[in-house]
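tool_call predict_complex ligand=iron/sulfur cluster
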Amino acid sequence: MTAPHSVAHPRPLTPDPLLRVTDLRKYFPVGTGLFGRGGSSVKAVDGVSFDVLPGETLGLVGESGCGKSTTGRAILRLIEPTSGSVTFAGQSVLDLGSTALRQLRRQMQIIFQDPFSSLNPRMSVGAIVREGLTIHRLAEGAEADKRVKQLLQEVGLRPEYSNRYPHEFSGGQRQRIGIARALAVEPKFIVCDEPVSALDVSVQAQVVNLLQDLQRDRGLAYLFIAHDLSVVEHIADRVAVMYLGKVVELATREDLYREPLMPYTQALLSAVPVPNPAARRDRIVLTGDVPSPSNPPSGCVFHPRCHHPAKDEACARIVPPLEEKAPGHLVACIKQAPTTVTWEQQQAAGATRPPERYLPLAALHA
Ligand SMILES: Nc1ncnc2c1ncn2[C@@H]1O[C@H](COP(=O)(O)OP(=O)(O)OP(=O)(O)O)[C@@H](O)[C@H]1O
Ligand code: SF4
Ligand SMILES: [Mg+2]
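tool_result ok
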């Protein structure tokens, strides 16, 4: 019998994903009547699918309330998803019992946006960082003390800070403590939920650089959540854009910034400031507010605000599939050519304008 480990396999072109999220949904019940009946729900996450490869950073971007944090938390089961599947390193996360889930949490960690509320004010920095070591029985006694000091050093803090308390530190330093806490259990994957949004601009780059150094040294994969496309431009390998609970575009960083195809992404990118004032872009102004996720628009959820010249009746009737418009470049728009939604299907839904390739160049490449 041949030992399976001795068989030489050709190296696959793309590695197996570390994390696979498929059709994830989280609906929060709201306004429930007596006995929980008769209420509606907030469709915070509504059919989200993506992969994260080992060692990769996937940026997750979109306006406030579009479901980014809920996606990150549902993956880790910090909140229970309504439906869908999450596979991490071959394990089905949503099927795990509490013991197996606790073990898996060692490999999947989270860094929160607010470094002020995410650290227990009554615990010393050393105790905060040490907690994971104890829970997962990774080290105890003097060995744990040594690991805590190493971790503090690794995130750019002095080892003697372990006796101090969170209120003694600045926002940037607290975020470093949060990073040390996440790293203590030697995870493979970290959800970074807007880790720099609450920090001064001058400190943001330092924390982003730290996360990048740690990724390189430890082979970490990140789901990096941000409001702003300019933040993920420097850290993400690929970027997923969310709107009203759905991923509407997903592409490599290069493709997304060079040729954004979903009209919503085009509008977001046109609003990113460019350093050279002479190269000022024409901003695509999004009209109207983001609709409520408890009552999302029919068809394409972006249709009330969309500027695509081929937008028509069919956009309000057909839910656009997230489909490949170019290799590895996924877009949810039935009017951005090519599309698998045929012209006959579109006409049957009231279409009058055929799909076309629309890139508002003045807004994006001025
Ligand atoms: N526990 C909850 N109960 C009811 N609705 C919720 C709950 N948590 C989140 N929501 C709603 O779900 C939607 C998505 O929220 P989420 O926090 O995931 O958005 P986000 O993209 O992270 O926003 P932000 O950029 O402001 O952090 C919002 O409409 C929010 O009000
Ligand atoms: S499907 Fe229609 S409304 Fe939606 S983004 Fe495309 S053109 Fe705009
Ligand atoms: Mg959030």
